[in-house]
Amino acid sequence: MPAELRDRPEVELLDGRKYPKVSPKRTHGMVQLAMAMILVRCVGDRGDTATEWRCRLEPQIEFVPDVAFVSFERLRPLSEAEREEPPFAPDVAVEIRSPSYRAEYGAQKTAAYLAHGSLLVLDIDPETRIVYAHARGGAPRVFHEKQTFAHENMPSLHFEVAELFARIRAQEQ
């Protein structure tokens, strides 16, 4: 493919330093799609859900969460251009770990999301099939594959964790 037809890799900014987005693979994409569908089903009438939706938390911090949900209440006051790249963290930010996951960077991103308005940050590990739910003022809550996800910060987001990994499991059999 000619170089001019390829998109440049996405980058995120944290304290002005550039971090390349990991090139997604099949498993990552399957979990990303499942989480987006769950969000649309559970909270879709209250806001917008999108994958790879850039948000500009401040001039030196820009993230591209794997999946994001932003309430209409927060979107309506924004201009059309601001809705494309909101000037705040999403209500729900979802990050799906890749094989090259960097724990320190993940922790910094989670802290920044929460400091800039996220109600909930979901850190999903497809390898262990665990969801870590982060909210301000507390330790992360851990949800295993055989559990039901529910969190007081987003009561309508209620789902079986196994649903995130169902297509992966079907391929394993």
Provide tags for this entry.
single chain; 173 residues; alpha+beta; tt1808, chain A; six-stranded mixed sheet; two-stranded antiparallel ribbon; 5 helices; 29% helix; globular
Describe the 3D structure.
This protein has 173 residues and is an alpha+beta fold. The protein has a single domain, classed as tt1808, chain A. The chain contains five helices and twelve strands. The strands form four sheets. The chain has a six-stranded mixed β-sheet, sandwiched between helices. Strands 1-2 form a two-stranded antiparallel ribbon. Helix 4 links the parallel strand 7 and strand 8. It is globular and about 45 Å long.
SSE diagram, text form:
Blueprint: E1 11-14, E2 17-20, H1 26-43, E3 47-51, E4 55-58, E5 61-63, E6 67-71, H2 72-75, H3 80-84, E7 92-96, H4 103-115, E8 120-125, E9 130-134, E10 141-144, E11 148-149, E12 159-160, H5 162-172
Parallel strand pairs: 7-8
Antiparallel strand pairs: 1-2, 3-6, 4-5, 6-7, 8-9, 9-10, 11-12
Helix pairs in contact: 1-5
At a glance:
The protein has one domain: tt1808, chain A (Alpha-Beta Complex), CATH 3.90.1570.
In the CATH hierarchy, the architecture is Alpha-Beta Complex
Q: How would you name the CATH homologous superfamily?
A: tt1808, chain A
What Rg do the Cα atoms give? 16 Å
Assess the beta-strand content as a share of residues. 25-35%
Helix % is 25-40%
Q: What coarse outline follows from CA principal-axis ratios?
A: globular
**CATH C-level category:** Alpha Beta
Strand order of the largest sheet: 3-6-7-8-9-10
- N-to-C SSE series? EEHEEEEHHEHEEEEEH
